Amino acid sequence: MDRLQVLDKGYVRLVGVMGSDLTIVNSARVSYDKQKAEMDSKDERLINFLIREGHTSPLRHASLQFEVYAPLMVARQWWKYVVGSDHTMDAWNESSRRYISEDEQFYIPAPTEWRSKPENSKQGSGETLKTAIGNKFTKALMQYVEEGEQLYNFALLNDIAPEQARLFLPAYGMYVRWYWTASLQSVLHFLDQRLGHDAQAEIQDYAIAVDAYTKAHFPAVHKAWQEHRK
Fold it and tell me: Which residues are the signal sequence here (predicted)?
């Protein structure tokens, strides 16, 4: 998987992986000074036991590194898993318009993608709105983005510093790019919450991509996690 497309212009790309299912097994067995070179059914049962019983510290000895391109509203939801993490081994580096002036990209929901407010909750979404209503707001958002880009470029042409010129860009829908490196334990914690039915739809789409990479590289852990996840 070179990279997985998400939303209209976003993606998730796996940059690197440290460890495997066997890494988890050997990390757990180091207490007994034991190490194995290949996985077998006993090791799968050990992984199942560790996850079932919540003994997840061995999962911190494996990690995944992703490149993510997503709207800022998704990035800021994701960011809390770094600043609030107790799982260690998390790192985040994000592109900055203080230093670069690459072409702006914005997330524009299609007319069929606008959602209503939920009836009995202060957060989340309700039903999908009628296309006629969605079409109105897709056009309005496109106009808003175009005006912001024009002001941003006008500021740059008048020698305004990029770090200030970016104030004219509509923020929440603007795509940003970052690297996220996290322990396997932290990745599974992220997936626990962002694959949930009550997670915002846009970040759910990104979680599905992260989940696909995780399953591909840690199949035994992923299988046990799926079986025992809350």
Answer: none
